[in-house]
């Protein structure tokens, strides 16, 4: 990562003290219940000349940067595979150290979302697996499971019907395994093509309880990147360039409630 090129106008959140038995860098997540993730755009991509690696600023609700996330993928696969491409996304702390690493496998697209289910592996710190996110079959909805490091199910993610999802706001619910309790919510607000194409307006807004385990918060954050890719892949506009379906993601992880 070219750490010196991060936007200087965004102030970094004050570094909290280290907490025993917590993965280094995740102690930030113990102090907040709100995150905002803004996708940054490269001029070449905005002009439609070249598909670049995606980068994101992860901030608190005061607009202070907590993390910086950067995708690393093969240029050839990025151009020809689009959202189906495999990639590694690294989340960095304020001194440039690797905090979280996400590995997404290559999964080809087809007319139905469940032909090649998406999956990713999450490590924090890099090299130490904390969990996985798997898409699983449903005839009409986008469905995922968040698993721990032993691949034991922690929660489900239920999305909308795959048809025309690029043309409307998207909502994903984080559910208990019996699907009776809503643990959180991911909402995606489409703010208009011209605004998204020429501004850095793509945002994930994330809210979650203070007392949620930081590893689960990290898995939910990384799941959002997979959902971003999957939404584009299954939007009904998969034959268009990925940039034409850029949007604003708002993720809210609220207190549990009955479904």
Automatic annotation (TrEMBL):
Source organism per entry reads Balaenoptera musculus (Blue whale)
Task: Name a Pfam family for this protein.
Answer: Scramblase
The entry's keywords: Calcium, Lipoprotein, Palmitate
Q: Give the family from UniProt.
A: Belongs to the phospholipid scramblase family.
What this protein is reported to do is described as:
May mediate accelerated ATP-independent bidirectional transbilayer migration of phospholipids upon binding calcium ions that results in a loss of phospholipid asymmetry in the plasma membrane.
Annotated GO molecular function terms are: phospholipid scramblase activity
Gene name, per UniProt, is LOC118893921
Top-level division of the source organism's lineage: Eukaryota
Q: Lipoprotein among the record's keywords?
A: yes
Please provide, in alphabetical order, the Gene Ontology terms of the cellular component aspect for this entry: plasma membrane
* Cofactor(s) demanded: Ca(2+)
Q: What is this protein called?
A: Phospholipid scramblase
């Amino acid at each position: 990562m070219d750490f010196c090129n991060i936007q200087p106008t965004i102030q970094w959140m004050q570094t909290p003290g280290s907490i025993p038995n917590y993965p280094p860098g995740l102690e930030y997540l113990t102090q907040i219940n709100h995150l905002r993730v803004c996708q940054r755009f490269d001029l070449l991509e905005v002009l439609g000349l070249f598909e670049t690696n995606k980068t994101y600023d992860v901030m608190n609700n005061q607009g202070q940067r907590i993390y910086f996330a950067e995708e690393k993928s093969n240029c050839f696969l990025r151009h020809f595979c689009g959202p189906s491409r495999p990639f590694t996304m690294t989340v960095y702390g304020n001194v440039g150290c690797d905090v979280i690493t996400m590995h997404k496998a290559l999964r080809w697209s087809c007319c139905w979302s469940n032909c090649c289910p998406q999956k990713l592996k999450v490590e924090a710190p890099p090299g130490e697996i904390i969990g996985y996110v798997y898409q699983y079959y449903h005839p009409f909805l986008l469905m995922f499971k968040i698993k721990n490091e032993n691949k034991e199910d922690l929660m489900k993610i239920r999305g909308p019907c795959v048809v025309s999802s690029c043309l409307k706001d998207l909502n994903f619910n984080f559910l208990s395994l019996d699907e009776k309790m809503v643990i959180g919510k991911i909402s995606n607000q489409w703010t208009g093509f011209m605004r998204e194409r020429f501004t850095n307006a793509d945002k994930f807004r994330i809210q979650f309880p203070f007392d949620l385990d930081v590893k689960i918060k990290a898995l939910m954050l990384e799941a959002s990147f997979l959902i971003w890719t999957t939404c584009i892949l299954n939007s009904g506009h998969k034959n268009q360039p990925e940039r034409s379906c850029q949007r604003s993601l708002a993720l809210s992880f609220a207190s549990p409630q009955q479904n």
